[in-house]
Amino acid sequence: MITEEIKKRMIAIIGPENYDDSKVGRLCYSYDATPDLQALPDAVVSPRNTEEVSELVKICNEHKIPIVPRGTGTNLCGGTCPTEGGIVFLFKHMNQILELDLDNLTMTVQPGVITLDVIKKAEANGLFYPPDPGSMKSSTIGGNISENSGGLRGLKYGVTRDYVMGLEIVMANGDIIRTGGKLAKDVAGYDLTRLYVGAEGTLGIITEAILKLVPIPETKKTILALYEDLEAAARTVSKIIANKIIPATLEFLDQPTIAAVEDYVKIGLPTEAKAVLLIEQDGSPEQVEKDMAKIADICKSEQAVSVQMAKTVEEAEALTTARRTALSAIARIKPTTILEDATVPRSEIARMVKAINEIAEKYNLPICTFGHSGDGNLHPTVPTDARNKEEMERVEQAFEEIFIKAIELGGTITGEHGVGVVKAPYLELKLGAAGIEAMKAIKNGLDPNNIMNPGKVFAKDSRKRVVVGQ
Amino acid sequence: MTTVQEQQTIQNVFQDRMDQDELLNCMRCGFCLPSCPTYITSGYKESHSPRGRIALMKAVVDGLIEPDEDFEQSLNQCLGCRACEPVCPSGVNYGHLLEEARDIINQNKKHSLPVRTVRKAVFEGLFPHQNRMRTLTGLLGFYQRSGLQKVARSTGVMKLFPESLTTMERVLPKVPTMKEMKNRPEFLPAVAPKTNRVAFFTGCLMDTMFLETNNATMKLLQLAGCEIVIPQDQNCCGALHGHSGEKDGSKALAKKNIKAFEDLNVDYIITNAGGCGAFLVDYDHLLKDDPEWKDRAKAFKDKIKDITQILYEVDFHKKVKLQLPYQIVTYQDSCHLRNVMKTSAAPRALLQAIGGIDYTEMKDADRCCGSAGIYNIIESEMSMQILDYKMEQTKATHASTVVTANPGCLLQMKLGIEREELSEKMRAVHIVDLLMEAVQE
């Protein structure tokens, strides 16, 4: 509950234009991209700088008001859905690129900067910021850091975590700390930077970040390989890696996914193929040439029915863009789309794909699978309808089995989307009871009043998607 | 103000009429956010984004919120540019949702007496009657030619009106005389080897205030080998009604137009206003629940084509020599032409075919200019902010000629040029007028 008194104090800090508790204002921050999940916050605030964030947090801590930091709400785990009410923090004013340091190859940013703007700014200076989550055109860097977002280039270049060198954080008690720095080597104490990347806003609020940039690869080539057999495609993935080639991108799409994507982008994708691999390599022209020739050979040796190299940059771009739309294109099939990101060691890809198909059959569900096969990160996706309770029940069961299978194969319940609300009930599968306890100890130590994004990561009880009223 | 009673009624009708599948189809991925001019201009307010507006409509249906003033404000501030549709991976027909929501609000809300009077006069008394459109334009002509305009400006009486209106008054084109507006052709032969038989949708504003542009359009069609039929019983397309929550009015106009064009034995129906064209291609949706008209609307819709598209398809720019004195030319997309009619390559190809000029693409040419029908008058503040950004991008091209493909955009760009005091150095023209200027006969 936010009393008039608390409201007044907050408005004194940020001004009336940055405090919104209207019905419309609250409704608009009651959701993110997670299907079938909605809950109204009590108010929405837009602080203008770190000090204001700190002042607001102090008030929330004093009165035990939940805080939900939110970028543009594109995450898929319910991470920014205010399931316990409280106050949503927006970073629309804190959206500046503060510095581009060409000597240290770093970029210092505020959390509200759009991911694509970071990438563009780097590229305009001959540099490269590799993490490229599917929503990069609209997502913010603050959200990416809090969710430790991945993307298509994860296999070769890693994920957001690998590009965060330092952070400014507002702690749950309002203290402002700085971690890391423009340093390749820094072992001064615990690595809090890494702890906060992917903490989903449950340990504090990120108000500034130093990002690592790398030199931009000279050139890039793209191959599209078609298969009549799903597992042959999966085997190709393992074989490419076993041959000591790390492609920049190694994406996998199954037939239902290809059909959905083609229906949307209409660039002539082969909808008759059972599986498609989209493979990109970047680097020096000689190396790219050499790798691509070898990759093409491997594809053919694994019975690819067609192996095509994109002839122009535009053609390559069209293929990558098509892959980027996969999730959303599937969303056209049915009103509700449930997508998960079970991840296994890449050597287990073929087995995982096979298991997903068997589970789909068992529960009589149309599962489309696509994903970053090179890093073992798959996206089994079910187009469904939240209004069909019986089918939703089967979807839940199917995913539970998929998670269990992933763990069995040495994998994890989530590769890049985060735990949030929707995967919290499965976290114990991955961590065990002791693992959960260790994490809870950190949470309790840093946020004793449990105000930072409460209800996320740690499950209360069983996993149920619910639409919360008010 | 909307009373509590009215809110209750609106909520009930929302539950009844809003397309719930379409609402649910929005997966809230947020891909639309960067494409929305009002989201950006409002300083990234979710309530001013397509995702936010859909969530709000759904919340009203679900009974989570009441359709209060803030809710209406959020919908009112939408330009209806539909830039969110091409980028929507789920293919949500946002424009249809918006029109339905606006219609429900408007039909169930009692407007104040002056607003009611004006709406009635405009939507029922004026636009559906082409003769009255001519009379009004005639009056404007009288105003411009009689010296009254000079008097109005010199006495400062114009200062009594809002800023966007007074500037608008300055940028209105010199309108044709009553005689010119009345003597319109019904048939024109092709003057080059025949390519197509087409009908010309003249449009209510285009055939009065922008008569010259219509004349140029027909000339270009003739030069492109088109034989043209111009049915005299056609009407305003109804877009203004549709976008303003007067769906019944737009349906009546749609039926009249379908009837006027259906037995002409033509290949295409040509428009030269993106705003009209986009509404015409939506006739099948507008009349989807009317069994008598549904199929006829579909047949009509399938023939709609923008003037730039047909010129491009028949290789007009390769067959006719186009040449102009040196100037930098840039193009501002008509949102509806681009996002709904999917025509954006053709106008650019035509412009690039003009010899002697330098075509420079402006940044964010696909972002709305803020005209949006009568939005620039009703939501003047937001419209002017959007226009300011547009003018920044226009100036960055150093263009002396800004080309548009819709009368609303044309007036808005003229307004922008006037506001920036650039009228000495920069002009805004409709694409067909520039092409006509470039034709070397």
Q: So how many helices of chain B? A: 25
Total strands of chain B: 9
Q: Classify the fold: give the CATH topology of the domain at 220-408 in chain A.
A: Vanillyl-alcohol Oxidase, Chain A, domain 3
Low-confidence stretches of chain A: 462-470
Largest interface: A-B, 40 and 30 residues
- What is the CATH architecture annotation of the domain at 220-408 in chain A? 3-Layer(aba) Sandwich
Instruction: Determine the structural class of chain A based on helices, strands and strand pairing.
Output: alpha+beta
CATH class of the domain at 320-438 in chain B: Alpha Beta
Q: What is the CATH superfamily label of the domain at 220-408 in chain A?
A: FAD-linked oxidase, cap domain/gating helix
CATH architecture of the domain at 320-438 in chain B: 3-Layer(aba) Sandwich
EC number (chain B): 1.1.99.14
Protein name (chain B): Glycolate oxidase iron-sulfur subunit
Function (chain B): Component of a complex that catalyzes the oxidation of glycolate to glyoxylate.
Catalytic activity (chain B): (R)-lactate + A = pyruvate + AH2; glycolate + A = glyoxylate + AH2
Concise description?
The complex is a heterodimer of chains A (470) and B (441). Chain A is an alpha+beta fold.
